[in-house]
């Protein structure tokens, strides 16, 4: 099997997140292809072959799977927003449940209660927030406003019939694109760093129906004189929305990064926020504040958290990675006190304001990194809720969290692979997985939320020992302090080192470079299962800047 060769085969199964597996007749290697569904017969080309693995790209679906249906979205396949619009929703849930359970079975020590994947209340039009990008569908083509083409960083697909947002969002999208074309102004070119039109942000509350529309541009042209901002607002307000427009905004962003960034926002109409309701609570949401993008699905998620956390009366609860404080406020009415910790200051300010608006006096929120702030909270929790970002919890922070030894802990994960990694440490530090449930917040895609209930292990039996310390003997405090030093440290993996370097230095390092640095420092090296006695070629020495970055990572993880 070589790169560039073309084969035909049937996708046997799909592993998380969207990796289809194909067994090729006469070949030992199984080929991985993206964005297929089980049962499809496909023609594919080989992109990569290494270490007993092969990756390919689907060129054509020769025969559809028996479970496939016609996608309700006319943009499916071209647009990169969705993966499984061509499967009935029941089959999507089955696939997500099978993938998640397989991962959890491999990660959990012992038995646990598997509760499947809870469906989203809405299968279509469920998103309360959408960021559309300006660009062109092909090089030097007409202006487009939509989502990135599948597998492309540059090309944009117009999505006037997108099915994961509601009709009001689609109307705002079409109106803005038509008006932008009339102005003749250019979109912002990501490579040349020039142009004007960047993004359209549309948010709509599922419960209140309030709509917030924000156009993001550079400062290359005058928004009123050259673009005619008032006329754009007039056209939007003339649309037959079913919801109510709460605000229309213009945000300036001259950053070279291809992200929506606020470098100054002007209110063109109404206000720069709207309200959404969850489980009887009311939340004020600004253009860039984090809020679950599926409001009705979020209610299912938070009800599960409330169920899992159990008895909370008079309890102190830590809500770590609390965002805008939605979980903290959902738990506060039935708890003694809830303390939230979040690294984004804007989110903390929103959490404080929302808690006051909901009449909750037993909520407090801290701005800062969980790793650092957790030592400053000045109290010990009875229960902990973890809702970390996609990369999971930092190992050092997780160590501090488990040191509290709380009776019950609920972990919410938006990326199952990060959850698998963190469960290894949690279980190694005395926690047992009791229940796991998935919640589908993103129908049509491969994403799935996971909720895990963990309890602290209790000893099978207790032996009472009386210890007497006489004069000149070792004090009990000294013994305890010495025991702490000999606690086993969590295993620091090459992947953790790679992620640290990429996050802090902006470049990637190969595992061979990490091994070379460890070898040079005289650190213990373990033989790999496929180790060879003689190298086929000399080891490559890493550049100086990568050596320093790897050493920094090793110091950070206390390897050196």
Written description of the protein model:
With 560 residues, this protein is of the alpha/beta class. It folds into 4 domains: 1-68, Beta Barrel (OB fold (Dihydrolipoamide Acetyltransferase, E2P)); 102-121 and 291-456, Vaccinia Virus protein VP39 (Rossmann fold, 3-Layer(aba) Sandwich), CATH 3.40.50; 129-278, OB fold (Dihydrolipoamide Acetyltransferase, E2P); 494-556, no CATH class. The protein is 28% helix and 26% strand. It has 14 helices and 22 strands. The chain has helices at 89-107, 167-183, 223-227, 229-237, 295-309, 326-331, 345-357, 370-373, 395-403, 416-428, 476-485, 494-505, 511-520, 544-556; strands spanning 6-15, 19-23, 30-34, 41-50, 53-63, 113-118, 129-136, 143-148, 156-158, 197-204, 210-217, 244-252, 265-270, 274-278, 281-285, 316-320, 337-342, 363-367, 383-386, 408-413, 431-439, 449-456. Strands 6-21-22-20-19-16-17-18 form an 8-stranded mixed beta sheet, with helices on both faces. It has a 7-stranded mixed beta sheet with strand order 9-8-7-10-11-12-13, covered by helices on one side. It has a 5-stranded mixed barrel with strand order 1-2-3-5-4. Helix 7 (345-357) links the parallel strand 17 and strand 18. The longest helix is centred in the N-terminal third of the chain and has 19 residues, at 89-107. The protein is globular, with a radius of gyration of 27 Å. The model is unreliable at 527-536 (pLDDT under 50).
